[in-house]
């Protein structure tokens, strides 16, 4: 059975993360554009105030983050924009 770690690379896009006007890393995320958030692996270092740069060049400012759980295990970090 595939894990969530397998899903993100298959379905996700590579976002660049900007913090304090500096590009700090690239990370795979799944854009939930209809609900205005991007899901990342729960270990991702995404913080309120970061800028997510979509592969198209569009920039999203992170307003809030939350962790989703399946049972007692975290499976996604959602960054709302």
TrEMBL record:
This is Uncharacterized protein. It comes from Anaerosporobacter mobilis DSM 15930.
